[in-house]
Amino acid sequence: LLAWKDVLTIKSHCSTDCHFFQKSEELLEEVVLSRTLNHLRGHVGHVQNATSSFIEILDTRVCQGPYDAALIKAWEDWDEKCGSENDHPKDFPIYQRYVISVLEHGGEDLERFVLLNFDEARSLLVQTTAALAVAEAAYEFEHRDLHWGNILLSRKESETLQFVLEGRQFLVPTYGLHVSIIDFTLSRINTGEDILFLDLSSAPELFEGPKGDKQADTYRKMKEVTGDCWEGSYPKTNVLWLQYVVDILLLKKSFKRTTKDERELRSLKKHLNSCKSSKEALQDPFFSDLLVDIHVTEDLAS
Length: 302
Prior knowledge:
The protein has helices at residues 24-38, 69-82, 118-139, 214-226, 236-251, 259-272, 278-281, 294-301, and strands at 3-9, 57-64, 97-104, 108-109, 151-155, 160-165, 168-173, 177-181, 189-190, 195-196, 292-293.
């Protein structure tokens, strides 16, 4: 089993610049949120909502001390290859504490992954939409930061992927592509015991990105939808990120497609304007031939 480590830095009192640290309370909430989404990976035949499209957490540990040389080299290799937006770990104090999560290997992010054709693009959209719809139904989940760096893609041999949404079991074609959604730092969830969220009203810089930038515009649209009250349930935010993904496919990704395919993507983006949730979005005609009810398939087979 291939896995990768996500190292999160716990905020502490220090004399150095601490803008890259996170509060321990925020990190704990993110770990709890991630593990709650893991519950959606349960046996699909015995649950009301199920999806395997959120990254699986294999283990989580808290540690303290200087960054290991192997981890520093891994960070520097990544920075040289892809360019990291984070501070160099050598700048952390030697007594720094960290949360280390071991995750399944979800593949390469959408920004760097090479899509081959329109079928793969459609599968990416239906898997992402279905996963969000399932999490909405189960936990009032909103990702709130689903940019192209937080959608991982990998190629696998399985031809279909199973979802359960409010008891309805259905398959979607993968065309060999599998989606894994990651990074729940800004996400909101209702675990049944607590509502976990990050109060983005305390991070005004998030909404100050350049106008016309699709990611920055989506943050601002979220603020309009929520009224800057981030504890509440606003599944429309998931729809905003689905529209963002459609824009990315149209504007940033090159793959084999026709003018008809592009019209379908633009039509989907337009239809999403009237959707209040991912569940509503999943009912769009764009997805109609990509959702196969299992019990209907079994009835036809018999």
